[in-house]
Specification:
The complex is a heterodimer of chains A (236) and B (285).
Chain A: H1 2-6, H2 14-35, H3 39-64, H4 67-94, H5 102-105, H6 115-136, H7 145-164, H8 168-189, H9 195-223
Helix pairs in contact in A: 2-3, 2-7, 2-8, 3-4, 3-8, 4-9, 6-7, 7-8, 8-9
Chain B: H1 11-20, H2 32-51, H3 68-89, H4 92-123, H5 128-137, H6 139-142, H7 145-161, H8 189-215, H9 226-253, H10 262-281
Helix pairs in contact in B: 1-8, 2-3, 2-8, 3-4, 4-7, 4-10, 5-8, 7-8, 7-10, 8-9
The chains are: A mainly alpha (236), B mainly alpha (285).
Chain lengths: 236, 285
């Protein structure tokens, strides 16, 4: 039997296995956004995903001795786990989507496809991401290759999320989690990126949140709904 | 649970003992299949433990005659026989249960297949003994995402298969979510007892696969002596009881879904199993 085991896919080291598990957690959070029925929980899920990302940054910092990644992890935690969800929540409360009219907090019916089909489509996209990265043959010095494929899968699944969910907040969250996928890719392929660049990206994110917040408010003010389905009347 | 005092832990055994003393009736027009199916299904359930590591780390004399797929086939053969017997009665309830069980069985089948693929990719074989040995071999094997994802997917399938969530109440007789309880609706006496016993055995078999192959393959007897085996029995009972508590908590803390929402549950399990294969396929996951 030992001969049989030797031909199998070898186990990764405990460390890269753990890093992979965190990366898979980021991807699963992305999938969780597909079926989340309440705006409040959607924002929470985004915060959880960002927290996982910070944890991964700390793991990389500790194992690869990149002390500036600690600073990045702390900053990204403060911004994406605390400030962005806080801003989003305040905004949504301002228009009554959280804690106000329950009609607007409920986004359960905002799917263009049924949840099961949407998840299957997203699995297909994730598989596409996995296999394209495998075909590229990229190698990362700091993290296992699987983490790179997972990050590409996160980006693609975020696109699918933005396409199949028809409420503005899910689409904004989809965009923000897309940024999480990009940050994961950056962590895998370019962990030694100068800190100043990473910080610049993070503040770009803050700008995006403000712009999205404004768009959500304007849309809600004009259409009295959270759904982009009401925008079809703009067609000529 | 649910703020009420439940029946005694041993109540199912009292039920079975009582049923064995009752007379058996068969509906008009049913054939020999109706009476043979419970016994044949029981035989299937008795065969599967030969193939999986229940008490020992080494294979039993016939332990390598079938792999995980073989065990799965035998389990579905048992379920098929019960469904045929249910159809044989002509009773609408039994037929409804049988048809639902088969339809939803087809939905969860891909998940089981992907879990088997994962096992095959990890070990290079799909013998349950080999996977248990691999999991025991190092910590790296346990925290690799493929293993965790496959174990979680299998756990979801087991929750469904034993009728805990998403739509059924395990012993419920509410027709909206009736699958497991509807099939033996027309059976009575010893035959009904055998069916009930078989369904309880199926639950223990599935728990054993999850525990001794995926999650906690420790405490098994490595030698055929008396004491190691006794210890392994105690360990298995302890682990299964612990898992039972976890399942009972899950069972009681989630609302049941509507029947057609079962595809969402199956899609979730399929997602986990699919990701397990993807991460493995690229090597290392």
């Amino acid at each position: 039997m030992t001969a049989i085991i030797a031909t199998a896919v070898a186990a990764p080291s405990a460390l890269s296995g753990g890093a992979n598990v965190i990366a898979v957690g980021v991807l699963l959070a992305e999938f969780g956004m597909f079926r989340q029925a309440l705006l409040r929980d959607q924002v929470r899920l985004y915060a959880a995903q960002s927290a996982l990302l910070s944890a991964l940054a700390i793991v990389v910092a500790a194992t690869r001795h990149l002390p500036e990644l600690y600073a990045l992890a702390g900053l990204s935690f403060a911004l994406k786990v605390v400030i962005v969800p806080l801003v989003l929540r305040r905004l949504l409360r301002g228009i009554g989507a959280i804690g106000g009219d329950p009609r607007w907090g409920d986004i359960a019916g905002s799917h263009a496809l049924s949840v099961a089909s949407a998840v299957l489509v997203a699995i297909g996209m994730a598989a596409f991401g996995f296999f394209t990265v495998a075909a590229l043959g990229l190698r990362s010095p700091v993290l296992p290759d699987t983490a790179l494929s997972i990050s590409v899968a996160v980006i693609l699944v975020a696109f699918v999320l933005m396409i199949v969910r028809r409420d503005v907040v899910s689409q904004a969250i989809g965009f923000l989690s897309l940024e999480n996928g990009v940050a994961l890719t950056a962590l895998v392929v370019a962990a030694g990126l100068p800190l100043i660049l990473e910080i610049a990206f993070l503040f770009d994110l803050l700008v995006a949140v403000v712009v999205f917040g404004l768009l959500i408010r304007v849309h809600h003010g004009r259409a009295e709904s959270m759904s982009t389905a009401d925008l079809t009347s703009l067609r000529g | 649970m649910q703020g009420r005092t439940g029946p005694r832990i041993l109540q199912p055994y009292y039920d079975i003992a009582k049923l064995f003393r009752k007379e058996a009736l068969a509906p008009d027009g049913s054939s020999w299949v109706f009476l043979a199916a419970p016994l044949a299904a029981m035989a299937c359930y008795l065969t599967v433990p030969l193939l999986i590591p229940v008490l020992t780390t080494f294979g039993l004399p016939l332990g390598y005659m079938g792999d995980i797929l073989g065990g799965g086939f035998i389990l579905s053969l048992a379920s098929f026989l019960v469904a045929v017997a249910a159809l044989d009665t002509g009773s609408p309830y039994a037929q409804l249960g049988a048809s639902r069980a088969k339809t939803f069985g087809a939905i969860t089948e891909p998940v089981v297949l992907f879990v088997v693929f994962t096992v095959a990719l990890i070990t290079g074989t799909d013998l349950p003994y080999a996977l248990a040995a691999t999991v025991r071999s190092s910590a790296g094997q346990i925290i690799r995402p493929a293993h965790l994802l496959a174990a979680a997917a299998l756990f979801m399938v087991i929750l469904y298969e034993t009728g805990r969530i998403p739509v059924e109440t395990h012993t419920g007789t509410n027709e909206f979510g009736m699958i497991e309880e509807a099939r033996p609706f027309e059976h009575s006496g010893p035959y009904f007892a055998v069916l009930k016993w078989g369904s309880a055995m199926k639950q223990l078999i599935l728990y054993t696969i999850l525990l001794n192959v995926f999650v906690a393959p420790w405490g098994l007897a490595a030698t055929p002596g008396l004491w190691p085996v006794l210890l392994a029995i105690a360990a298995l009972v302890g682990k299964a009881a612990l898992l039972g508590v976890v399942v009972a908590v899950i069972d009681n803390s989630f609302a049941k879904l509507r029947l057609f929402k079962i595809t969402e549950f199956a899609a979730g399990a399929f997602l986990l199993a699919g990701l397990a294969v993807f991460t493995l396929y690229l090597g290392g996951g």
